[in-house]
Write a structure and sequence with these properties.
The longest helix is centred in the N-terminal third of the chain and has 25 residues. The chain has a domain of 73 residues. The chain is of the alpha+beta class. It contains one helix and eight strands. The protein has an eight-stranded antiparallel barrel with strand order 1-2-3-4-5-6-7-8.
Length: 119
């Protein structure tokens, strides 16, 4: 008669052990990959800077924007043309294009082209 009492007790213990292992395997792990690092910025918040002819500078900013620093002290913000590859930024009759062979800043009518180099 003792064997009949032990068998149900043994079955309950086995089921309890199986359920505990299932719960442990379903628990979230802490080995999740780290979030991607934000792009590096310089002290002024620029992701990339270009020095252009004529004492002009262009800073690529976060949020698909660029800022042109003209020699007379004016700053002009440009917006990236959606889907442009390589990146092209326009605004206030200026056009800044980054290509495989360098970067160029021109007026909207493609006159007064300035060659720009990464800093």
């Amino acid at each position: 008669m003792r064997h009949f009492i032990c068998l149900p007790l043994l079955a309950l213990l086995l089921l309890a052990g199986c359920n505990r292992n299932a719960a442990e395997s379903a628990a979230p792990t802490t080995d999740a990959p780290a979030p991607a690092a934000a792009p590096a910025r310089d002290a002024a918040g620029a992701l990339m800077r270009y020095a252009c002819d004529g004492d002009t500078e262009v800073a690529i900013l976060e949020g698909e924007r660029a800022r042109v620093f003209l020699p007379e002290g004016r700053n002009i913000t440009l917006s990236k043309v959606a889907g442009s590859q390589p990146p092209v930024f326009t605004g206030a009759d200026l056009y800044f294009a980054i290509g495989d062979n360098g970067a160029y800043l021109t007026q909207g009518d493609r006159t007064n082209e300035l060659t720009c180099r990464p800093q």
